[in-house]
Amino acid sequence: MVIETKKAKASLESLHRIFTVPEAPNSTLGTIEQAISQNLNRFLQDHIIATEYSLTEIEKDFCNANVPEQPSFVSDHTEFLLDKLVAQSVHTSSPRFIGHMTSALPYFLMPLSKIMIALNQNTVKIETSKAFTPLERQVLGMLHNLIYQQDDAFYDSWMHSAEHSLGAFCSGGTIANITALWVARNAALKSDGAFKGVAEEGLFRAMKHYGYEDLAILVSERGHYSLKKSADVLGIGRESLIAIPTDENNRIRIDKLEETVALLKKKNIKPFALIGVAGTTETGNIDPLDAMADIAEREGMHFHVDAAWGGASLLSNTQRPKLKGIERADSVTIDAHKQMYVPMGAGMVIFKDPSLVSAIEHHADYILRKGSKDLGSHTLEGSRGGMAMLLFASLNIIGRQGYELLIDQSVEKAEYFSNLVSQQSDFEIISKPELCLLTYRYVPESVKQAYAIATSNQKDTLHEQLNALTVFIQKRQREAGQNFVSRTTLTPTHLDGRSTHVFRVVLANPLTTKDILQDVLDEQRCIAKQSTLVYPELMALANSILLADAPITQALTTE
Amino acid sequence: MVIETKKAKASLESLHRIFTVPEAPNSTLGTIEQAISQNLNRFLQDHIIATEYSLTEIEKDFCNANVPEQPSFVSDHTEFLLDKLVAQSVHTSSPRFIGHMTSALPYFLMPLSKIMIALNQNTVKIETSKAFTPLERQVLGMLHNLIYQQDDAFYDSWMHSAEHSLGAFCSGGTIANITALWVARNAALKSDGAFKGVAEEGLFRAMKHYGYEDLAILVSERGHYSLKKSADVLGIGRESLIAIPTDENNRIRIDKLEETVALLKKKNIKPFALIGVAGTTETGNIDPLDAMADIAEREGMHFHVDAAWGGASLLSNTQRPKLKGIERADSVTIDAHKQMYVPMGAGMVIFKDPSLVSAIEHHADYILRKGSKDLGSHTLEGSRGGMAMLLFASLNIIGRQGYELLIDQSVEKAEYFSNLVSQQSDFEIISKPELCLLTYRYVPESVKQAYAIATSNQKDTLHEQLNALTVFIQKRQREAGQNFVSRTTLTPTHLDGRSTHVFRVVLANPLTTKDILQDVLDEQRCIAKQSTLVYPELMALANSILLADAPITQALTTE
C-alpha cells in the first residue's frame, strides 16, 4: 500500500489502493491484522474488566474536535486504537463481568462477521442484498416458529410472501418495542369511513375522530425504560404508559390490572396495548402471560410481550413452560445480542399475524416498490446491514439443543449463586432467580438483627445507610476492575416497599465459575469494611439498637 | 474445538470451548478464517454484480422455519454460507455497481472491524463501553465542527459534558431524521404552565393546550421517504408532511414555500419544522439552504437539513460552498456509511445547540442515571455497538485531504459521465450532477426527432413507451449481472412534468473507470434493441410521426 510508504500523504493513487483487495497474506495489512488478532486474544484472555484509568483521563485522548487534515498510516493508527481504545474498553466478555446482559461470544462469530462486514449488504432492498433477504426472512420465520409453533404450511405461505412479514429485524430491543407499539397504535386508530387513519392524518385528528378522551398503554411497574421512550416518540405521552403494581415476585398484579382497565373505560380512555414482560430487566421475572392474554383478548387490546432478554429461553424445553402464554401475544420483542450470544445490533420484533405489519407499510419510487420483497417496506429503520446472518449461523452451529444446554446451565448457576448468597450471614437475597438474573445486597449480621427489632424510624435510618453502603460497594468494586455487578433500585415487599439499592447479577456467561461467584462476594464483603464513612456509622447504629434492647431481652429470658 | 470432532454433538464441555480464545493460528478456526478471507477476496475481485439465480430459486435454500435441533460443524456451516449466501449476494463494492449509495470500502476496515466485533461494547452506557464513549463523543464533535465550525472553547465545554450532547450516533439516516424531528416536535410543544409538555402528556393534550388546528412539517417534493415514516411514527401524520414543489433543478421553490407558510398560518396550522435536503436521494440536488434558514428563523421553525448522503461533501473545501447555509441548521443528518466509506450502520444526527437534546432526555434507575455521561440518555436506540470506532479510524487514516480527493474525483467523474451521456445521439440527460449523482434515459434518435414534432397525444404515447423501455433495460441489465444502475421516477419540467422513469447513477466508488461508464451505455443500447415488445412498437410510432411530417417539411422546403 502506497499509503504506507515513508510519509502518509493523500494522493489519488494511494487512495485507490486502499480500496483494492490486498494481494498477499504477508502484505502490510495482513501483518496488521495478525497483530490485532494477537492483541485482542491477549486482551480477551485477561480476565480484567477495565483498567483503573478514570473517564476524565481517557477523555484527554479523545478531545480534539478537528478532523485531521493529513492521512495517517494504518499501522500508526492501529497502534493508537490498541493502546488508547482497546486497553481502555470494558471486558464485557469476561466471566467476571456479570452485571449486564453482555456475555462472551462464540469465537466462530469472529471469522464469520468478516463476511458480513466485507459484503456490506444493505438489507433495505433486494437490489443491495439478494440472498441476505431470504436469509433474514428465514431467521424471522425460525423465531416466529419458536414462539408460535405454526405448521409447515403456515411458513410455506408467509415466510417469503411479498405482502407479508413475520417480523422485523432491527438494531435492538428499543426499536423492536417502538415498532410493535407503532403497529398497535396504527391498528387501533385505523382508517374508518372518511377518516384515513392515524398514519395519514396524525394523532390529533385520530383522537377527534374516535372520540376518546386519551390513550393508554399498560405495563407492570417493572417495564423497561424503552417503553416510556416509545410512548413519548409515538405521541402517546409518557404519562399514558400506565405502570401497574407488581406482587412480591415482581409480576404484574392481575387484580390491579383489572381495576385500571375498568377505571380507564369509565374515563373514556382507550387502553390500546397491554405489555407483558418476559424477563424484567431488573429482576428477571416473567409476568403471568396467559392471564394477561385473556384480558387483552376480552378488551380488544394489542398484546405485546417484551421478551428482549427472556425470549431466548424458548430455545430450552426446560425453561419454555415459564413463558406459557407468550404464544398468544400479537407481537414479541427478542434481542439476539442478549442470550442468543450474537454481537450487539440484533433486535427483532415478531408478529403473530403476518398481515399485521401492513399498518406501518411504506413505499417509495426508487425502492420498496409495491409487490417487491424488499424488507425495508415494513421496518422502522431504512438502510441496514446483514446482521441476521450472524444469528442464522449461531442457530445452525449451536443448534437448539446446544442453546438449551447453555440456557439451562445459566439458570442453574443463578440458583446456585442465590443459595450461596442466602447461606452467608451478611448478605441478603432481594429477588430470587426465575431465569439467570438475581438481586441481593450486603447486610452485616448485626444490622440484620437490629433491623428485626428496630422502630420504624430506626429502620428508615438503617435502610438509608444500607443503601449508601450498597452504592459504595458497587462503585468501588467496578473501579477495582476485577469483578463487576450492576446496581438498581427496587421496592421489595418484605422491606415494606422501601426504595432499596441492590446488586444485580446476570449469569449468562458460560465461563463464569463457582469460584468466581465466591470471589465476588468475598470482595464485596472486604470493600464494605473499607467504607470509612458508612460502615462504622451503620455498625454503631445497629449496636446501639441491639444494646438498648439487650437488657429487656435479658430481663425477659431471666424472668 | 471439541465441536469439530467426528460428529457435532452438543455437550456442555464442547459448548464452553466455543467461547474460549483459540490458542493457535493453525487451529481449526484459524484455518476456517483463512478460507473465508480467500473466498471473500476472490468474490470481491470478481467484478460481477450478482449471479443469475432468481430470488425464488435462492429462497429454496432458506425455507425451513425450524431451528435445527442438532449443532453443526463450523466448517460445514461456513461452506454453506460461502456457497449459498456469499455467492448469491450482491457485489455492492463492485466498480460496476453504480446504482446505489454503497461503494467499495477501504480494506483497512476489515481488520479494524474485528476490534469492534470482538470487544462487543454496548455504548448505551459507560459501564459497558468506557473508552468507546469519549471516542463516540469526539466523533460527534468532529462532525459538529465540520458543519458548524465553532472554536476550540466550544468543544472543550460541550463535547464531553454529561448534561449535553452534540448529536446522536445511530443505525442510519432514518433513525437520525426521526430523532431530529422528535426533538423538534418536543421543543415546539414543550411544557408550559400546568401543561407538562408533549413528551409527558402526549400529542392530543398538547394540541388542545396550544390550540393549534394541526401541525405541519415542510420539505420539498424530493424529500426522502423516511420523512413520511417519521411523520407517521411521531403521530404528526403523513399528510402533515407537506411537499413543496421544486424548480427545474429539483430544488425547493422558495416562493411556493412562502405561500404555503402563509396559508398554514391563516388556517392556524403550526409548521414546526422545515427540512432542507442536501443531496436529494433521487437527483442529488441541494436546496437553497440559506434562503430556507431565513424563513425558518423568521417563523420560529426548527430547521433540519437531511444531508444523509451529501453531508460528506463538507470534507471537501471544493464542494463545501454548495452546502452554504447548512451551518444555520438546528440539526443535520449525515450517514457515514454513504460517502464516508464505512460499513452499513453508521448514521448520525448533529445538533447545533448542545442543550437541544434535553427535549428527548431519558433516565432509568439501573443505567442512564442523571449526571452520568451515558450516551443512551439521549438516543432513540438503546443498546448499540461501537460503530463510531470505524468512522473515527477512517477520518484519521484517510484524513480530510484524502476525503477531499475522493469526493472531488467522484463529482468530476459524474460530470464526465453526464457529458458522455449528452454526446450520445440516443441518450438523454434528465438531471445533471450537482454532486456525484445523475439521472438519464435511453431515447433512440428518431424518437427524439419525432417527439419534437409530435402532438400532445402522440407525446403521451411515445412517453409511455419510453417509460416501458427504461424499465425493461434497467431490469434486464440488473439480471445480466455485469453492470447495475438503479431506476426512479421524476417529473422533469422539460418534459412538461410528465411522470418519467429514469436511470439513476451514483458515482461514489473510486474504482469506477471511464471504460466502465462507456460499457454501461453500450450494454443499455444493446439491451434496448433486444426488447422485442417495446422497441419495435416505439420505433414504428416514431417513424410514422416522422413520415407523416416529412411531405409537409419537404413541401415547405421545396416551395
UniProtKB/TrEMBL annotation, chains A, B:
Keywords: Decarboxylase, Lyase, Pyridoxal phosphate. It comes from the Bacteria. The keyword Membrane does not apply. The keyword Nucleotidyltransferase does not apply. Its cofactor is pyridoxal 5'-phosphate. Signal peptide: none annotated. InterPro entries: Asp_decarboxylase_pyridox, PyrdxlP-dep_de-COase, PyrdxlP-dep_Trfase, PyrdxlP-dep_Trfase_major, PyrdxlP-dep_Trfase_small. Pfam families: Pyridoxal_deC. Belongs to the group II decarboxylase family. PANTHER family: CYSTEINE SULFINIC ACID DECARBOXYLASE, GLUTAMATE DECARBOXYLASE-RELATED. This is Pyridoxal-dependent aspartate 1-decarboxylase. It comes from Enterovibrio gelatinilyticus.
